[in-house]
UniProtKB/TrEMBL annotation:
Pfam families noted in UniProt: BPD_transp_2
Cited InterPro entries: ABC_transp_permease
Keywords: Cell membrane, Membrane, Transmembrane, Transmembrane helix
Organism of derivation: Desulforhopalus singaporensis
UniProt entry tagged with the keyword Transmembrane helix: yes
Coiled coil: none
Protein name, as recorded: Nucleoside ABC transporter membrane protein
């Protein structure tokens, strides 16, 4: 593999990793509040479908993006209703959300398979795109990729430097102590759930509006599950999520290029590469106990205040 091909592969890794990054950041925000949402896959595919349909109807990819974010909020709110209001099991609720979202999206989207919609085109950044190597890898993409460069920084500053971000972390660590200090635990958890759902919806919209510009059945192809695993790999830190998302994006881009090059490896082996890496990452992350920022109260329901 020569240098030019390597640079192009790294650029493809950034593009392929962007939807995973959006979803991972959304799950980090949700889990920082103490709520586990395993419905990322379902939220993403609903965002992909609604974003596609809104863009197709209005002719505006921006309208599609906002619609995808909105449906992500609504879908996540269903999870919040089950877990925060009815005190349902968070794992079961998340799995049900994935099954529901995937089924609804594939059913409604059946008539649109293969159809195109207006999307976000690549926009080489002036000056920056002309830089050797770095310009090709990072600054020759669509606007949603550029936006994804800033969100991890914003989330890091939010969690570490702002009053509300620190409160969310407190709620995720010890909701009883946070409540005793006067914090409304339910409000902060609702914020984490709905805010996280917004980013998950954007991740889905990226697939239909920037990555493919079309709709097809099972468009997310397990990326939501990869995002859930990446949260653990990233130790709940937005900065590490960037590296993890691009790593998985690179594996996805590599397996596509290996298939296109006519490799002798069976296609089933190539398709399993990202998911095999997911298992490896989870195993390696389990050896790093004591170095993560996992919220102590993650997955623990809190009785609503009287």
């Amino acid at each position: 593999m020569n240098f030019e091909i390597t640079v192009l592969l790294l650029a493809a890794a950034v593009q392929s990793g962007t939807p995973i990054l959006y979803a991972t950041l959304g799950e980090i925000l949700t889990e920082k509040s103490g709520v586990l949402n395993l419905g990322v896959e379902g939220v993403m595919i609903l965002g992909a479908l609604v974003g596609f349909l809104a863009s197709k109807v209005t002719g505006s990819p921006l309208a599609g993006l906002l619609a995808a974010g909105a449906v992500g909020c609504v879908a996540a709110a269903v999870h919040g209703l089950v877990c925060l209001v009815f005190q349902g099991n968070q794992v079961v609720s998340g799995l049900a959300l994935t099954i529901l979202g995937t089924g609804v999206a594939n059913y409604i989207g059946t008539g649109y398979v293969g159809q195109l919609a207006p999307g976000f085109a690549p926009y080489p950044m002036p000056v920056l795109s002309q830089l050797p190597v770095v310009g090709t890898i990072f600054f020759n993409h669509d606007p949603l990729v550029y936006l994804s460069y800033f969100i991890p920084v914003v989330l890091f500053l939010f969690f570490s430097r702002t009053h509300h971000g620190l409160n969310i972390r407190a709620v995720g660590e010890n909701p009883a102590a946070a409540s005793a200090a006067g914090l409304n635990v339910a409000v902060y958890r609702w914020f984490g759930i709905i805010g996280g759902g917004f980013f998950m919806g954007l991740g889905g919209a990226y697939l239909s509006l920037a990555y493919t510009h079309l709709w097809t059945t099972n468009l997310t192809a397990g990326r939501g599950w990869i995002a859930v695993a990446l949260v653990i790999f990233a130790f709940w830190k937005p900065g590490r999520a960037v590296f993890g998302a691009y790593l998985f994006g690179g594996i996805m881009a590599l397996q596509l290029r290996l298939q296109a090059s006519g490799t002798q490896l069976p296609s089933s082996i190539l398709l399993m590469l990202p998911y095999a890496l997911t298992i490896v990452v989870l195993v390696l992350s389990s050896w790093k106990k004591g170095t993560s920022d996992e919220p102590a109260a993650l997955g623990v329901n809190v009785e609503p205040a009287d």
